[in-house]
Amino acid sequence: MQQNTITEQMTQAGQKIEHDSFAIVDQEVGTHHYSVDEWNIVRRMIHATADFEFNGLTRFHPDSVSAGLSAISLGANIVADVEMICVGLSKPRLSHFGVSTHHFISDADVITQAKAENSTRAVQAMRKAQRLGLLQNSIVAVGNAPTALLEVIRMINEENLRPALIVGMPVGFVSAAESKTETALLNDIPWIVTEGRKGGSTLVVAAIHALLALAEQANK
């Protein structure tokens, strides 16, 4: 199997550290029920957090990996709930596939509308993305705001929104677990979620970087 180049660390030293870390995760994880591609995603999530509980807490729609790889190969938009995800994703890796990132959580009009409707910025940010035509066939990336995820689910059910993939991993205590449970009930829209309260933008970035690596390997 050929070595990836675009989705690897930029120096040999960095590559060795990352590969050694992956080997340690493989050695210490014990058993898991994931497919090879799914494990590549979960392993990178564990690597990013040093938390082995994501072996088991991470769930996949049956079509999630193939849908993610297809979306990346087509240069899909990534619409994130927070800027942290967009900052964390590697720009050279994204640009190799023609993938763009978008977030609207801090836009003035989003804040104004959230105050006017007594909703959240995350809800209004996703509505703005929908108005701009960015959500259809996109990768929706949610690591912080459960209300963003719930709003996307509402648009799927009520407005026929069809994102390519949802990476739904909001962290927290209010509606975080519930929003991921609701996501996992979607049959026709592929998703990757973490169960319970655990999540975060770091996990979303790790999952998408793993998908980018798989996409590069698939194109060899």
UniProtKB/TrEMBL annotation:
InterPro entries: Cbl_synth_CobH/CbiC, CobH/CbiC_sf. Pathway: Cofactor biosynthesis; adenosylcobalamin biosynthesis. It comes from the Bacteria. Gene3D superfamilies: Cobalamin biosynthesis CobH/CbiC, precorrin-8X methylmutase (3.40.50.10230). GO terms for molecular function: precorrin-8X methylmutase activity. It holds the Pfam family CbiC. Residues 16-213 form the Cobalamin biosynthesis precorrin-8X methylmutase CobH/CbiC domain. GO terms for biological process: cobalamin biosynthetic process. Keywords: Cobalamin biosynthesis, Isomerase. Belongs to the CobH/CbiC family. PANTHER family: COBALT-PRECORRIN-8 METHYLMUTASE (PTHR43588). This is Precorrin-8X methylmutase. It comes from Methyloprofundus sedimenti.
